Amino acid sequence: MHDADQDTTIVMSQLAAVAFDMLADKPLEQISLDDVADAADIDRSYAAICAGTVSALILHHLSMLDNKAMSETYDDLKDAGEVSIREKILEAILHRFEVYNPHKKAVASLAKSALRTPPFGLELLARRVAITRRLLLLCGDNPHGWQGEARIHGVVGVMVASARVWHKDDSPDLSMTMKEIDRRLEQAEDWGYSLGVFGRGASRQKSDAADRADADVAANKEADHD
């Protein structure tokens, strides 16, 4: 039996990949759906049925990249053992940059289009907030209530600020980007503790004490093992 929904999804993904690659050479506003269909060797009328707009294709491809990053991070973290939430968040953000690394020109082009087209920019921001919520849940942080929303937006800020370094980072392991993420996370933590977004009674001193306690437990385990 012919599965029209499956065919549409496949074509949508093909068109989305082509449209996203085209961003490296021209801005979103100058890419037409017919251009994408021709480049993908897909009938223009069918492309219109599957996609509707070029913006929809771009958002579809961004979702595919984000899902790839989340899935791979999940696989990396599920057997990571006793790793702090902060370290997991750093790893998740860094891996997302790794997934996007082959597409730096397209991402830079999208950022400019977002400024020129506010509705599209707001859509990108909403999606970034949504993926950050998923990222925090993946890392063991349940972002509920106003405190959770504040933590989400704090991590969004970390990603936005770190992206400026990522665009210039040519190192094979994105070491500059990792250092910037770490630095920005520390700033966000200081801000979070000062505003109480980590829960009632949370403080930097308590966090440091907990880190020292974890280190002592690890050291004792190592000594017992020896």
Automatic annotation (TrEMBL):
<feature type="region of interest" description="Disordered">
    <location>
        <begin position="202"/>
        <end position="226"/>
    </location>
</feature>
<protein>
    <submittedName>
        <fullName>Putative transcriptional regulator, TetR family</fullName>
    </submittedName>
</protein>
<feature type="compositionally biased region" description="Basic and acidic residues">
    <location>
        <begin position="205"/>
        <end position="226"/>
    </location>
</feature>
